[in-house]
Amino acid sequence: MTAPARGRRLDPDARREEIVAGALRLFAEHPYAAVSTTDLAREAGVARGLINHYFGTKRALYLEVVRRLTTIPEVAVEELPPGTVEERTGAAVDWFLDAVDRHRGLWLAVGTGAAGDIDVDAILAEADEIAADRVLAALAPDAPDDPYRARVRSFFGLVRSASREWLVRGTLDRAGTRALLVDVLLAVLHRDSQV
Amino acid sequence: MTAPARGRRLDPDARREEIVAGALRLFAEHPYAAVSTTDLAREAGVARGLINHYFGTKRALYLEVVRRLTTIPEVAVEELPPGTVEERTGAAVDWFLDAVDRHRGLWLAVGTGAAGDIDVDAILAEADEIAADRVLAALAPDAPDDPYRARVRSFFGLVRSASREWLVRGTLDRAGTRALLVDVLLAVLHRDSQV
DNA sequence: CGAGTCGTTGGCAGCGTGTCAACGAGAGCC
DNA sequence: GGCTCTCGTTGACACGCTGCCAACGACTCG
C-alpha cells in the first residue's frame, strides 16, 4: 500500500510540507542532536540531499518546525466573561490549562525543545510577545507597557515550569497549578512592592 | 611566558581541574554545539584525546561544568536579617540579584544552556530542589511541603525568564526585576486564591 | 511523440567525535 | 647518579554526520 515511489515528482510546497510533517514527528520525541538528516530524510521518504535543497540546513528545518509549533496557539483568547479581575484571570487560566492539556505533547516539546539557541530563543520570544499582548489586553488594558509587558513575559517562564511540575513531575495537580498561576498572574499585574 | 610544557605530568585531579576550568570559560560564551573538543583541548593546553580520557565524552564534560555552576551558589543564604516576611524576602532577592550580577555570564549560560536535554534537566532539577529547600526554610519555615515546594520550583522558572529580561533584553532594570521577584515570591508563598 | 524543465538523487569532501596503542616524564630503588 | 617501572599523555585511526553539487529522469508543453 502506498508504494514508496522513489523519485516521484511533487509540488515543491507539498514536498516541503511532507518533510516538515516528518520532522515534526521526530523532533517531538527526540532531542535535536539525536535526530540526523538521514532520519529526517527516511521519515519523509526522500533522499537526504533534498533536506538541504529545501531548507539549506538541518538547523533551518528545525527552526521551521519550532515556528509551526509556537504559532499554532494563535486561537482567540478574547471572549472572556465580564466580572472582577480575579474572575477573568481565573477564566483565562482555565482556558489556557485546557489548551495545554489537549496538546500536552507538543507543548512540552516546545518548552523543552532546545532553549539556549539564539535563533530558537528569538522565535519563542516572538511568540511570547504576542501572547503578552493578548494577556495585557484581556486582563489589564489600562496598564502601561513599560514594566508590565516584561513582567508578563517573565510570567511565561513560570508557566512553563509549572506545566512541567504538573504534567511531567506530577508534583502539582491541575487545581494546584491553576491556583498558582492565578495567584502569580494577579501579583504580576498588580505591582504591590515599593521600589 | 609560562611555557606550554607539552606532555608534562600532572596530578590527575589537578589536570581535571584545568580542563574543567577551560571548559567553563568556553561554555560560558559559546553554545554547546559551537564548542569542539579541539577547542576544549586547546583552551586547557592539552591533547584532544585527554578530554575523552578524563571525561569519556564531550557531553559528560559539559554535564560536569553544569554541575559546578549549579552547585556554586551553595554559599549560605541563612543569614537573613530579622523582620517582616516582606523585608526578609526583599533581602533574599537582593542577595540573589547580587550573585547573578556578579556571575552574569555563567548564570545565563546555565539558564540558556541546553534545556530539553534529559541529563541537564536532571541536574538543574536537583539544584532547584536544594534551592527550594533553602527558600522555604528561610522565608516560610511553617509552610507544608506539599504544594509549596512545587510552587517555589515553578517560581524559579520565572526567575530565569526575568533574569533574561533584565540582563539580555534590557526590558527590566535591576529595580524592576527586584520588584517583580518580590511581588511574585510573596504571592507564591501566600496562597491567596480559593481552589 | 520529442524536447526541455526542474524536482530529485547519490556520492564526494570536510569536520568532529571516540578509541587505542605507543611514548616518555617523573618517582622510586639500588 | 643511573636504571626501571608506572601511568599520565599524546597522535593517529576509523567512523558518522553535515553540506554541496553535478547528473539523472519524471513530468509538461508544443
Automatic annotation (TrEMBL), chains A, B:
Residues 36-55 bind DNA. Gene3D superfamilies: Tetracycline Repressor, domain 2. InterPro entries: DesT_TetR_C (IPR054129), Homeodomain-like_sf (IPR009057), HTH-type_TetR-like_transc_reg (IPR050109), HTH_TetR (IPR001647). It holds the Pfam family TetR_N. Residues 13-73 form the HTH tetR-type domain. The keyword Transcription regulation applies. Keywords: DNA-binding, Transcription, Transcription regulation. This is TetR/AcrR family transcriptional regulator. It comes from Actinomycetospora straminea.
